[in-house]
Amino acid sequence: MRPDSGIALVRHGETGWSRAGRHTGRTDVPLTDTGRTQARAAAALVAALAPDRVRTSPLGRARETCDLLDTGHEPLVDPDLAEWDYGDYEGITTAQIREAVPGWTVWSAPCPGGETADAVAARVDRVISACRAQPGLTLLVAHGHVLRVLAARWLGLGPDGGRHFRLDTATVSVLGWERENPVVLSWNLRGAP
To answer: Active-site residue 12, yes or no?
Structure first.
């Protein structure tokens, strides 16, 4: 634990699938023009944070968002930041899933053929360990569900704790410390267009 370390999170900008509420795990869906505008708007918030290093998901929507943030750092592409693998639920909405599995949520039920919540937690635990091992602020550019699990794990919660953290596209959030306690310093901030 390094109370002199912190993490800034940026969810990628809007895609056609995120706008439609479709589960977008490993499918490499591009940003929309709105998503690009959102990412550019987030750049001022990120610049004010002055991150010391940057890590990004390998998926194109996150990498393009990272490029549009223009941090001045060469990002480390980290496969542990890829979005939750939704398996058979890839590309469909929660409403469609609930037609067959009433009450389904990614937080409370499995994704057949995909990842478990515990598998996602194991990935983000590795990211958190790497970030906490270095002083200063690490910027992570990734995806909605994986970043929500990461926030929960930062606080010492189980992966299902991510259900409490709404995370909109191209928003900026910061995880840090209050004395020796991991805390959320800011959440879901949107840059001015």
So the answer is: yes
Tell if the pTM clears 0.85, that is, is over it. yes
Catalytic residue among 14, 83, 90, 115: 83
* CATH number for domain 5-190, candidates 1.10.10.60, 3.40.50.300, 3.40.50.1240, 3.90.1150.10: 3.40.50.1240
Return the minimum-mean-pLDDT range out of 2-11, 95-104, 107-116, 167-176.
2-11
**Residue showing tokens 């969810």:** 11
The yes-or-no verdict on residue 68 having pLDDT over 70 is yes
The one catalytic residue in 12, 23, 143, 145 is 12
User: Which of 149, 148, 150 lies closest to 138, judged by CA?
Assistant: 150
> pLDDT at position 157, please?
98
Query: Which 8-state DSSP code applies to residue 161?
Result: G
Query: Measuring CA to CA, which residue among 57, 76, 51 is closest to residue 135?
Result: 51
